[in-house]
Design goal:
The chain is α/β, with parallel strands linked by helices and 417 residues long. The protein contains 14 helices and ten strands. Helix 6 links the parallel strand 3 and strand 4. Helix 6 packs across helix 7. This is Muramidase. It comes from Borborobacter arsenicus. One of its GO terms (molecular function) is lysozyme activity.
Length: 417
């Protein structure tokens, strides 16, 4: 598995794009010229390494640490010498490509060319599936943790989720991953469809996949985490082929990564490679975990959602007893405040209008306590229609069957009731 060239991959990103991402993470975009932003970003990298060396080390070549576990991921065309691979005791897991988009049609129709292509696709699908399950058996026999990923394509996300689960036949200890190569709905599954994919996987097996993607897409999800409420909380399998990622890491709900794909064909060849896994070709993908082998085995297969970090700006101090406050030995604690949804905001608006204009039955009905909000909205709409009927006609009787809302000419008014 590899990301699209030039997106999220260090070798293809421009210096300007890196500057912009760094400035955004440090909130410098509006206040500093480009040269100053570069200087402050460099200082930020140095400070992050100095202030918190323990956490910063997982963002700077962690594969060089002997206590960091490694995971290999492969697809059907990667050759594997299993006996050599397991000589590297840092290799804890193996993740193999499972399904690719939608499953090919079982019944082939059309002209000779179309039928021939259909049969070839089905044969490839069958061979890939057989190889997948053979590798699964071998890996588990050798004591490796097992995982599967789905290459997300455009197309029905529910059908793709079913294809993934039916292909992989995951056991309770098998990791599942959704591979979104880039935020380009023309080539890959859209993020909106990915939300449905993730939701359906959970419906079927009771747990969530982790999310594999590049830096740019991860940043977009992090910046729009309220819109992508599931994707932004999946454990992140981060693809970036640079020695350091701290200043570029997307943050949001992600305080760290589950796996970091640091080596692939993009930065590994016969002459130079960040890490060589015995028994694998140079184009194999290698990943590092921010934990040791024991911790990774305990965390595997992940499967849950990340907790949403509490932001201080959206928190309030927890009240303390007066006696404790006078004693002066108090540690402030903060409780998160639930963000108001659009529906809550609408309800509050009606309540305020009802308090300001109690004589208006329309607002009063919507603001009435003790009844469900949607029932109050219905009362408001009924009252509004009656008001509009009375508006142009005054006390005149309306003929039965006539809807003045759609048929009457309403005189110009400058204020709605």
């Amino acid at each position: 598995m590899s990301v699209v060239p030039g997106v999220g991959r260090g070798s293809g990103q421009s210096r300007h794009a890196d500057d912009q991402r760094c400035a955004r993470n440090l909130d410098l975009t509006l206040f500093a010229p480009r040269n100053l932003r570069r200087l402050l970003c460099a200082v930020g990298v140095a400070l992050s390494a100095w202030v918190a060396p323990g956490s910063a080390s997982d963002f700077s070549q962690p594969w060089k640490r002997s206590d960091r576990a490694l995971v290999v991921d492969a697809y059907e065309y990667n050759s594997i010498d299993w006996q050599k691979l397991v000589t590297d005791k840092r290799i804890v897991g193996f993740i193999n490509k499972a399904s690719d988009g939608l499953s090919p049609p079982y019944a082939c129709k059309g002209n000779d060319t179309e039928v021939s292509l259909c049969k070839a696709l089905w044969k490839r699908h069958a061979v890939a599936r057989e190889l997948f399950h053979t590798r699964k058996t071998v890996a588990k026999t050798l004591g490796l943790e097992w995982g599967a990923y789905h290459l997300a394509r455009p197309g029905n996300p529910i059908d793709q989720a079913n294809n993934f689960i039916d292909f992989a036949e995951p056991g309770p200890d098998d990791l599942l991953a959704l591979d979104i190569e880039d935020n380009d709905p023309e080539k890959w599954m859209s993020l909106e469809d990915a939300e449905e994919f993730v939701r359906h996987v959970h419906r079927r097996i009771g747990r969530f996949p982790i999310l594999y993607t590049n830096g740019a897409t991860a940043q977009h999800i992090a910046d729009n985490r309220e819109k992508y409420s599931l994707l932004s909380r999946l454990p992140l399998w981060y693809a970036r082929y640079k020695p350091e990622i701290g200043i570029h890491f997307p943050k949001g709900n992600w305080q760290g990564y589950a796996l970091w794909q640091f080596s692939a064909r993009a930065n590994c060849n016969e002459k130079s490679c960040p890490y060589r896994v015995p028994g694998t070709p140079t184009d194999i993908d290698v990943n590092v975990a921010s934990m040791d082998a024991k911790e990774l085995r305990e965390a595997w297969p992940f499967g849950g959602l990340l907790d949403v970090p509490v932001e201080m700006i959206a928190s309030v101090p927890v009240p303390i007893a007066r006696a404790e406050g006078l004693a002066g030995e108090v540690t402030l604690a903060y409780a998160p405040v639930e963000k108001a949804s659009a529906l809550v905001a609408l309800e509050n608006a009606f309540q305020v209008r009802g308090q300001h204009y109690p004589e208006r039955a329309t607002y009063a009905a919507a603001a009435e306590k003790g009844s469900k909000f949607f029932a109050r909205i219905a009362s408001y709409l009924v009252g509004l229609k009656q008001t509009l009927i009375a508006w142009p006609f005054g006390q005149q009787e309306i003929a039965i069957g006539v809807d003045p809302i759609t048929t009457a000419t309403i005189p110009g008014r400058t204020e709605l009731p």
